[in-house]
Amino acid sequence: MKFQTLDNCIGTVLASDITDDNNRLILKSGIVLTEKIINRLRNFGIYCIGVEDPISQDIDVTQPVSNKTMIEAASIYTNQNSIDVDKAFSIAEKLVDEITCNNSAMSNGLQIIKVYDENTSLHSINVAILAIMFGYNLGLNITKLNNLAVGGLLHDIGKTKVPIEILNKTDKLTPEEFEEIKKHPQYGWDILSEDILMPATIKAIVYQHHENWDGTGYPRHLENYNVYELAAIVHICDVFDALISKRSYKSAFKYSDTIQYIQSQSGKMFSPYYTKYFFKFVPIFHTGTDVILSNNEKAIVVKNNLGDMTRPTVRLYNNMEEINLTQREDLSIIS
Fold it and tell me: How many domains does the chain have?
């Protein structure tokens, strides 16, 4: 079985049953996927599924987070201008519990959902999951992991106060429009501060997730260790997911370009420490994902290699040969 986003699933065969958040059967395995069925899945908040494929039969593609929890997480975002903050705390605990209790699934990586809308809930869910994985491998305690999860889910809550025409603009923003976008961390702080019981740690993540290591970020131009550690973690996860996702104003970056960009920003946008360990600890390629190698061969990810997640073990489509990319400096994944 391999994981695919719904955009690439027409005509494929569903590999496992799909249930809703009440464990009621939505689709049974073995069904051939049509456009109508795929639209139905989207309506349930499902964006990637396992499909049958001979080359990936023996690959473990268990997701670190269940479809049920993903659907519940998406329900936090009741509409474009409203987020259920209280529910974010309970969902965050579920995300942390599922991810940290399944080391095997966590090493398989997150099937990143390519986000097509600046305001979609999926970006924030991706950021939360990436942050939990990163924080767990950094050795953070359960309290910090839960705070990371909530902060990841809510980091862009301030964008609910930014005019939608600015968020979805396809042309280059005017200087005035960009200044408005840059206000969203302050807006987020203001929204969360309306709750006197809101933990300061959560507000700090939301307020500081665009602060850069070298002091060039916003809104306060904080630098180095003056940036709250959990905000710095959310920052690098936020940028990573934004780069590999298509937006109204840009195409998705190739993975090779994304990796190069993140690494180039060590000591600039990001803490050198977090930049060093992000690609050592965070499995950016989900097992069962198709990739293109630098020699233009098509392959599928078989296993991630802790210590260098940019270089997993892959299986070639043309001859089924398996290659551990940590042992092949002449090859890399480009997309």
Answer: 2
